[in-house]
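CORE FACILITY INTAKE
Project code: CF-77B
Contact: R.S. (postdoc)
Sample description: multi-component assembly, two entities in total
Requested service: structural model of the whole complex
Turnaround: standard
Below are the sequence entries exactly as provided by the requester. Do not edit them.
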Amino acid sequence: MLPIRFPEGKPFDVVGLGENSVDHLCVVPRFPGLSDKVRVTRYEMQGGGQIANAMVACRRLGLRAKYIGKIGDDALGQVALGELAREGVDTSGVRVQAGTATRLSFILIDAASGERTVVWDQDPRLSLAPAELTQAEIVCGRVLHLDATDVPASVQAARWARAAGVPTCIDIDHVPPGAEELIGLIDLCIMSEAVPRELSGETDRERALRAVRRWNQHGFLCVTLGSEGALALLDGEALHAPAFAVQPVDTTACGDVFHGAFLYAALAGFDVPRALRFANAAAALKTRALGGRPGIPTRAEVEAFLATRP
Amino acid sequence: MLPIRFPEGKPFDVVGLGENSVDHLCVVPRFPGLSDKVRVTRYEMQGGGQIANAMVACRRLGLRAKYIGKIGDDALGQVALGELAREGVDTSGVRVQAGTATRLSFILIDAASGERTVVWDQDPRLSLAPAELTQAEIVCGRVLHLDATDVPASVQAARWARAAGVPTCIDIDHVPPGAEELIGLIDLCIMSEAVPRELSGETDRERALRAVRRWNQHGFLCVTLGSEGALALLDGEALHAPAFAVQPVDTTACGDVFHGAFLYAALAGFDVPRALRFANAAAALKTRALGGRPGIPTRAEVEAFLATRP
């Protein structure tokens, strides 16, 4: 079990603050080269974004989830909002920014490997400032899930959460200004592999992860490794949790779903090896379908999957 | 001068039948690799598609242009239609296909080189069948511009044009079934470099171009070569017309604009070297701006540009 206490008596299990987007998913028979012209074999538009996807994962697994973030006042914003609402995610904290376009991602999925390549755009006016947040909405869950989309807002939210005794989790895949301070405020620090490397300058995976202790003395530290699973520090020891071998249709949002499932497992009181295994299973099941969300499993599906993989 | 007679007394100078699309233009600081995540430095949505773009080029150069093709009954179809209408292109021959999405292109533009990479999707129901066309609309211009999007429709249209004494031009960048028959019906056969190579199996540029005579005995044969310009056959001699050296913002639709400008030059009675030079200049000016259309020059702009490049 993680040495973290999640408060009781909250209206939500998890509150997520950060990225949402609308994804244009393009399956290509081969990854294009420069100046190439490739016809997609399949195209879909779906709601996405790392925090919004994680909230959908939490919801599918049975948690009460609230999403806080900004959308544009365009038709795509309504797509993003409608999909979250249909999943049962609370959207009362979604802000609509006048005169802006909703964040877009163009995602190329290599048909052979399921590997995804993301090209994204965000209007700077979609940034959420600390002054736009209220403490009440930030601390109304048993755990707060953040990213590094708007670092000052995330730092403010993490401080409020800490003051209110609400543990924090982060999904961070790059190192923007202020990332060190933000990481220092996080209890469940689950990073993309590149982040410890960029922060510390260490190239070795484990040494880079250990080096993050410089900025975060007490939190749970973990990196996600794609098809290799995850590497965590547990009582000072490195713990590698291998991913489940699957034939992915699409790896889009596997990391987002890993985070959502890990939050579920942490709230359920799983010990760390079991939580990592559960999160790896959810991420593996996610790859069954095109896009960030259609493949996200229910708890029963994760358990059925795990029962077949001793 | 080309040995081609363009009929007089037609309501349009040029009629174009073929591809239209809506382009999602994404300028990227570097071309992404597989599994990469790259933020765009600029994003725009614009109307595009090779024949629709060529009709806009003809219009900007002062021709009366009509576009024939299909759009979906979605919001993007209205974007495509509205942009053509605003340019003054006749859209009375545009069909709206119920229950389908308009053709989409996701275009990555490498910021450093301006080179474009296209990923596209088209609903099969957007195909235009020969039975959906009328001879009257096809032959109401002084010249007919085709592509290989719907080969049976293009073959039917080329036959009607031939019967009515209306010369034909083609923009062909791949070799679908029936391409040989279609190419045999064309008077101004301006191909992407890959087409003669794929048709003939010849790897040498000039030999491949000469080999196209097997399918087209009498037409003007030419290949576009991107930043190298164009290579044509003139009285049995190969004529290389170099492109103008520019720092492209975006090369999207340079070939489309080359075709439109060549049509203008042919109708204006320019000899082949002057027509190729004019078309190269129009394509070079196109690269000034992001997207297929904003950079398309007027005749005055082409002439001013040519005056500075003796």
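Facility notes:
- The mean pLDDT of chain B is 96.
- Residues 272-286 of chain B form the longest helix (15 residues).
Invoice: internal transfer
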